[in-house]
Amino acid sequence: MFSFFRRKKAESTPGEVPAALSVETTAPAKDPVLPLDDLERQALAAEPRDGVADDSAERAASAAPPGGFVSRWFGGAAAPAPVAPPAGVPAPPVTPPAATEIEAARADLAPLIAEKDLELAPTSDTAQAARVGWMDRLKTGLKRTGSSISTVFIGTQIDDALYEDLETALLMADAGVPATEFLLQDLKRRVKEVRATDTAQVKGLLRDAVADMLAPLERPLVVGVYHPTVIMVSGVNGAGKTTSIGKLTKHLADAGASVLLAAADTFRAAAREQLAVWADRTQVEIITQQGADPSAVAFDAVGAGRARRKDVVLIDTAGRLPTQKHLMEELTKIRRVVTKADITAPHEVLLVIDGNTGQNALAQVKAFDAAAPLTGLIVTKLDGTAKGGVLCAIAREKPVPVYFIGVGERLEDLQTFKAREFAEALVG
Ligand SMILES: Nc1nc2c(ncn2[C@@H]2O[C@H](COP(=O)(O)OP(=O)(O)OP(=O)(O)O)[C@@H](O)[C@H]2O)c(=O)[nH]1
């Protein structure tokens, strides 16, 4: 699910709900590669880039509230102006608002919320089929490797052997030791509580336990509180970043948001071309600069997003491995430079993980979070994996919200993560 708050027109009377919502119509991208024009360059050049305190550490700490699940912070209805302070003047501290302030901001914005919370719900029969298909394919994957959790419950006895088999099955599905131990204990408690007498009941209780464990990861991606909402997308090579950006762009554009893509993978020509294809398909603009510093592209894109009054700027970054220290540092730099272009940005830092990666996905979450604090995940390729249990490991050991799951290569194959559905697919 993502919530999309419409832009409040500057000329609107306070409290007045604009009759015609002010989201721009995205112009068809005739030439998908749009360099900054002179005026925009001058406007950006006029904005000092120096003297902005690096508040990333403070923000990293503050963006992780107890439990670590609230993935974003709001500046309230009156978001801080997205400009850098004059040179030499230290940046004002960016303090995340308290929960009550967030609620107040939401209430203020309520009349401006488009339609209501928009959800990446299946909009067509095809998408509905893809969703059903994903659940089937996840279950099939688990069966194929002989690690099906479901088969554990074929017998009738609730005994130690059942729990042992279940432990093995959970570990085989890459749930990891801490999550597996937690789930087993939780399950035993539930079994005792309801005095379960047959294994079918136990299976249902395990579904509940997994769903409860994953529930905190089910969070909406909110865009539209900031203009533009700047979303950085990171991940290892081939995880599905560009494809996911394409899919997300489609959903955002369908919801009426104007999107600007930034190809900050400046090394691989194919990566830029791939993003340009998605831009073309979804009819949005894209900023690319061959061979440029990725941070410079990101900086320019944020500036262009403001100048062109975009609702969302999506920054695609190059694939990198956590072991490639210099590339991880580059990610830190991109994030820092984005903050220089807009002191409130990036508003979201997403990590795309390949659902087939299993336990390594957890290591990726930790490593990327250390380089550029994460606010959300997109888990791809869940249409054919035996390792979906890793989400339990993430929930237990490094809880970062899962905004979306990828269940195929088509545009409509991006689904909102639903803990209960996932638990049902995993447990069978
Ligand atoms: N089956 C399946 N394939 C996917 C999914 N998401 C992405 N892919 C495929 O995975 C491959 C890699 O996707 P990309 O989007 O190019 O990955 P990337 O992370 O941008 O790659 P780099 O730029 O090389 O780091 C492509 O063939 C995609 O079609 C998914 O949810 N399911």
From TrEMBL:
Subcellular location field: Cell membrane; Cytoplasm
SMART domains associated with the record: AAA, SRP54, SRP54_N
Chain intervals with Basic and acidic residues compositional bias: 47-58
Residues the record lists as binding GTP: 235-242, 316-320, 380-383
UniProt catalytic activity: GTP + H2O = GDP + phosphate + H(+)
EC number: 3.6.5.4
Mode of membrane association: Peripheral membrane protein
Presence of keyword Membrane: yes
Function in brief: Involved in targeting and insertion of nascent membrane proteins into the cytoplasmic membrane. Acts as a receptor for the complex formed by the signal recognition particle (SRP) and the ribosome-nascent chain (RNC). Interaction with SRP-RNC leads to the transfer of the RNC complex to the Sec translocase for insertion into the membrane, the hydrolysis of GTP by both Ffh and FtsY, and the dissociation of the SRP-FtsY complex into the individual components.
Name of this protein: Signal recognition particle receptor FtsY
Organism of this sequence: Ottowia testudinis
High-level lineage: Bacteria, Pseudomonadati, Pseudomonadota, Betaproteobacteria, Burkholderiales
